[in-house]
């Protein structure tokens, strides 16, 4: 009888032990499932395309010595690593969207074109996304390149009107400030006050002080005063083609309207020294909508090679 009682007790204990193990296993499965759901929810919550880990990094104005990124969706920061070196690209104080990130690459370091670069994007939810691309080669998030190369054979070219070649950079609404011409057409631009082929434009005087963000061209602080420009050339229509060997989205033209000017003596241009784009006679700043209509990315600090025809 005692032996039977012991067997019964052991059987009950064994069954209880198995039940506890099963319960623990089930609880672990539930916890793992909940953790997975939380991770997927976090990924969806900060993704504009509602796909896990969907992310775009744009390097439109990066070059060998500075990093300038636009990240979609928003992020905390971006670590950029190449050939044993690393810089942390951070968002400036003016950017409440947490999408723009900049970092200076100090001499004698630089990132040569084609160098494999690892990007570590630190997301708002605490996660990270890592990927590697060749520096300044199709770094716009997968857009294809087409067109370009020959300004003598341009679709939509107006007969009897001269076509010029030059370089274009792009600017966002913050960098644009209040346009000189007080207009905001969708496809707009700001040629240098020295650009040839446009007749009398501006003219623009000389600014004062120093630019607080030379990389982005922001002249908001009291210590930076942009030059005053005249309105000659306001409303001028210019047909623009991308003819670069890299970065072009299409070889079809876009017609932009001059609504401002790029002053050669602006503090945010003179701070770039010999790299001052608006000191050239072949330069046009394009607002973002105009640039994005013809190009995927800016292939060099000098800009995107374009053909332009004043109308």
In short:
This protein has 311 residues and is of the alpha+beta class. It is built from four helices and 17 strands. The chain has a six-stranded mixed barrel with strand order 8-16-9-15-14-17.
Could you please describe the fold and organization of this structure?
With 311 residues, the protein is α+β, with helices and mostly antiparallel strands. It has helices at residues 2-45, 173-176, 267-270, 288-294; strands at residues 56-58, 66-72, 75-82, 85-90, 100-104, 116-123, 128-134, 164-171, 188-191, 202-204, 208-209, 224-225, 229-232, 237-242, 254-258, 283-287, 304-310. It has a six-stranded mixed barrel with strand order 8-16-9-15-14-17. It has a four-stranded antiparallel sheet with strand order 4-3-6-7, with no helix packed on it. A hairpin with a 2-residue loop joins strand 3 and strand 4. It starts with a helix and ends with a strand.
What would you report as the Rg, rounded to the nearest angstrom?
28 Å
Please state how the strands of the largest beta sheet are arranged side by side: 8-16-9-15-14-17
What is the number of helical segments per DSSP (H or I, 4+ residues)? 4
Query: Strand share of the residues?
Result: 25-35%
């Amino acid at each position: 009888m005692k032996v039977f009682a012991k067997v019964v007790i052991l059987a009950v204990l064994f069954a209880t032990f198995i039940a506890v193990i099963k319960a623990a296993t089930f609880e672990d499965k539930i916890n793992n499932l909940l953790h997975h759901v939380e991770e997927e929810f976090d990924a969806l919550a900060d993704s504009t395309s509602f796909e896990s880990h969907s992310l775009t990094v744009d390097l439109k104005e990066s070059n060998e010595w500075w990093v300038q990124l636009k990240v979609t969706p928003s992020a905390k920061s971006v670590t950029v690593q190449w050939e044993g070196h690393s810089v942390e690209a951070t968002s400036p104080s003016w950017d409440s969207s947490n999408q723009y990130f900049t970092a200076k690459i100090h001499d004698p370091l630089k990132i040569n074109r084609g160098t494999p670069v690892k990007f570590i994007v630190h997301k708002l939810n605490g996660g990270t996304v890592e990927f590697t691309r060749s520096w300044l080669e199709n770094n716009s998030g997968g857009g294809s390149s087409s067109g370009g190369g020959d300004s003598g054979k341009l679709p939509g070219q107006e007969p009897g009107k001269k076509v010029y070649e030059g370089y274009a950079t792009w600017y966002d609404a913050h960098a644009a400030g209040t346009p000189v011409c007080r207009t905001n057409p969708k496809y707009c631009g700001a040629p240098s006050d020295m650009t040839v082929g446009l007749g009398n434009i501006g003219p623009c005087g000389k600014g004062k002080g120093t630019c607080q963000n030379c990389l982005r061209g922001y002249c908001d602080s009291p210590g930076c005063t942009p030059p005053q420009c005249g309105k000659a050339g306001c409303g001028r229509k210019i047909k623009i083609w991308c003819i670069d060997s890299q970065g072009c989205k299409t070889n079809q033209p876009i017609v932009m309207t001059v609504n401002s000017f790029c002053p050669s003596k602006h503090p945010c241009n003179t701070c770039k020294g010999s790299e001052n784009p608006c000191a050239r006679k072949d330069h046009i700043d394009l607002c973002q909508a105009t640039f994005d209509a013809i190009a995927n990315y800016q292939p060099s600090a000098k800009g995107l090679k374009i053909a332009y025809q004043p109308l």
